[in-house]
């Protein structure tokens, strides 16, 4: 059987782009009687030896475009748009599928080559990734906390139980522990970690709980966004592709897309397009007043109790100054998963529970 990648272009017409590596050809096909029927050639040649270089908010590629056994075109340090222009200018695009479709076909093809080692992913965006059967940290300082520091973190978590429902707090903490590893979780094929959805009445602690999760990773206001930060849809894509660390998003309006929860790409279903330059690296913490309509892609936690002004001021004075102690928990999680990649298996909540158990054992 031919070595192929198939990409659905039009669900209504049942048309596909077929990347045939044996024939060194990308062609348009139509599904008829459960078989793909050749329609016409689209692009001559196929990509090989692909290197995908991801930085915060952008992706570039190195590759060879193989036309036949004797002809290969080196393409270096270029964006997906550059690749399309090069193929056009060299006459290799013989039937235009449309820029969006070509971009989608090429991007999905590049990433489909990763499991077979025919492509290499080089990531510089800060965070954690699954590479070579282990967790790899990129542009992140890894330090294992001391026993005394973990003891302080545990004591602080006990203090937080006085201010939040213990069940809500525990679920939020477990999600926060795993959140920077959500992209690695998808990379490994374990499924996906839902985005966190904090909802409830005014002044019920939603934003504060979100900031508590960010504090576990030493993150502050730079990862707190609102609707004005995504005035243009590309702003939303940029937020999700900057790093693998969680982003607290303050909005009651519908998100541009939730496809990024499950996919490694940020995609826009309205355009039936994959935005090739953007990977869905970061998970979101959404703060809202109403519960989510999408219960599959969100882990919803309801905060009901309104916090009066006096209690809020006490929290600000007595608790917030010590929020940085939670960073020891993030340090423990990252260092442990890097040292023991075998723990990164199965349900994400189970991984978080095991990590908490290991932390308790180290303290005691």
Structure description:
The protein is of the alpha/beta class. The chain is 32% helix and 30% strand. It has helices at 80-89, 99-112, 147-160, 166-178, 182-187, 206-215, 233-241, 309-318, 327-339, 348-363; strands at 4-10, 15-20, 25-32, 35-44, 46-55, 58-68, 71-78, 119-123, 127-131, 134-138, 195-200, 224-226, 247-250, 265-268, 273-279, 284-288, 298-303. Helix 3 (147-160) packs across helix 10 and helix 4 crosses helix 6 (206-215). Residues 269-276 have low confidence and may be disordered.
Helix content class:
25-40%
Mean pLDDT: 90
Structural class by helix and strand composition:
alpha/beta
Separation of the first and last Cα atoms: 58 Å
Largest sheet: 5 strands, parallel
> H/E series, N to C?
EEEEEEEHHEEEHHHEHEHEEEEEHHH
Mind telling me the C-alpha Rg? 23 Å
- Can you count the beta strands? 17
Poorly predicted tracts of residues: 269-276
Shape estimate: elongated
Give me the number of helical elements.
10
Strand content: 25-35%
Outline of the structure:
The chain has 364 residues and is α/β, with parallel strands linked by helices. The longest helix has 16 residues. 37% of the residues are buried.
């Amino acid at each position: 059987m031919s070595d192929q990648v198939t990409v659905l272009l039009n669900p209504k017409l049942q048309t596909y782009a077929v990347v045939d590596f044996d024939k060194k050809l990308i062609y348009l096909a139509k599904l008829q009687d459960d078989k793909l029927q050749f329609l016409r050639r689209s692009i001559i040649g196929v990509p090989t030896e692909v290197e995908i270089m991801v930085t915060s908010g952008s992706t570039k590629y190195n590759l060879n475009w193989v036309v036949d056994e004797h002809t290969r075109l080196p393409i270096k340090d270029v964006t997906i748009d550059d690749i399309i222009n090069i193929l056009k200018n060299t006459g290799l695009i013989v039937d235009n599928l449309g820029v969006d479709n070509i971009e989608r076909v090429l991007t999905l093809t590049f990433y489909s080559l990763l499991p077979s080692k025919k492509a290499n992913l080089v990531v510089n965006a800060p965070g954690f990734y699954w590479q070579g059967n282990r967790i790899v940290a990129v542009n992140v300082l890894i330090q294992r906390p001391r026993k005394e520091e973990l003891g302080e973190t545990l004591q602080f978590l006990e203090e937080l139980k006085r201010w939040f429902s213990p069940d809500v707090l525990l679920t939020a903490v477990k999600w926060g522990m795993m959140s920077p590893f959500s992209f690695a979780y998808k990379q490994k094929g374990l499924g996906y970690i839902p985005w966190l959805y904090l909802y409830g009445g005014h002044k019920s602690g939603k934003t504060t709980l979100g900031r508590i999760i960010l504090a576990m990773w030493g993150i502050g206001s730079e990862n707190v966004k609102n609707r004005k930060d995504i005035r243009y849809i590309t702003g939303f894509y940029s937020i999700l592709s900057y790093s693998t660390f969680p982003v607290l998003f303050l909005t009651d309006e519908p998100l541009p897309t939730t496809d990024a929860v499950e996919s490694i790409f940020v995609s826009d279903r309205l355009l039936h397009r994959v935005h090739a330059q953007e990977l869905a690296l970061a998970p979101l913490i959404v703060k809202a007043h109403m519960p989510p309509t999408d219960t599959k892609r969100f882990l919803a936690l309801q905060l009901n109790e309104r916090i009066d002004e006096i209690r809020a001021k006490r929290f600000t004075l007595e608790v917030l100054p010590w929020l940085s102690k939670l960073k020891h928990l993030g340090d423990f999680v990252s260092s442990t998963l890097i040292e023991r990649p075998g723990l990164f298996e199965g349900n994400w909540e189970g991984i978080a529970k095991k990590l908490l158990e290991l932390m308790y054992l180290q303290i005691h």
